[in-house]
# Entry
Amino acid sequence: MIRDITIGQYYPVDSVLHRLDPRLKLNGTLLFIISIFLFDYFYGYIAVTMFLVSIIMLSRVPLKFILRGLKPIIIILLFTTTFNLFLTQGDILVKLGFLKITKQGLHSALFMGLRLTYLILGSSLMTFTTTPNQLTDGLERLMWPLRRIKVPVHEIAMMMSIALRFIPILLEETDKIMKAQMARGADFESGGILKRAKGLVPLLVPLFVSAFRRANDLAMAMEARCYRGGEGRTKMKPLRYAGRDMIAYFILLLYFAGIIFISIYEKYFPYFDFI
# Structure
C-alpha cells in the first residue's frame, strides 16, 4: 500500500507537458479542479474525460503508474459513494429494509466518484511532470503580488515545495522500516482494521526520528551554503513564457469556456435520462 502512494513524485520523461512553464501547470490544475464542479450531467463528464485523456497522453507518464495513485483512496471513494447512494432522498429504485437506493442517489454516487477520481488524477499529473524546484519558482512567481502586503512569498513557496518533496521520501522510509520490522517477525497484514492500525504504532517512533533527522540535515545544509531567500535572490533558470505556453493557455481557456457553455446548456437541454 505504501508503494502505491504516488503523490509528490516526479516522473522524468521528455514530453510536451514536462516542458511547459510551471505557472501554466499550476493555473491549469486549478482551472481543471474548478471545471469538474461546474456541471451535473453527462455532457460535462464526456468533455472532462476527453480533456484528461488527452493530457495523460501528452504527459507520456504510464497509465499504470498514474492509476496506482488511486489505490490508497479507494476506501475514501467507497465511503463517499456509499453515503451518497443510500442517504440521498428521491425516487426509490430499490429498498432493502431501512436502506434504500434512489434515482438521485445513484446519480450522485456515480458522478461524485468520478469527480474525486478526476480530481486525484488531474492533480497528480502536475507533480508527475514538474520538479520540486520548478514548483517552488512557479508558486513564488504566482504569489508575487502578495509581497505588497508583506506576505513572505518566497518562504511560503519554499515550505510548500519541501513538504511536497518530503512525501515520497517519507513513504520510502516507511516502507524500509516496515520491511525491517517484518524481517524481525512483525505482522502488518493479518487481522482486522483495528489490529492493523495498532500494528502501525511501532512505525511512528523511528519514522518521526528519521523525519526530524532529515529536516535537521536539510537545515544544516542550507545554512552551510549561506542560503538566504527572498529579496535580491536571483534564479539560475528564470521562468519565461515560450510560444508553446501561449498555445497551451489558449487551449486551456477554450476548454474552460467549453465547460461553462456545457453547464449552461445542460440547464435548458438536460441530458438523456439514463439513470
Summary: The chain has two domains: 1-130+241-275, 158-238. The mean pLDDT is 80. DSSP finds eleven helices and two strands in the chain.
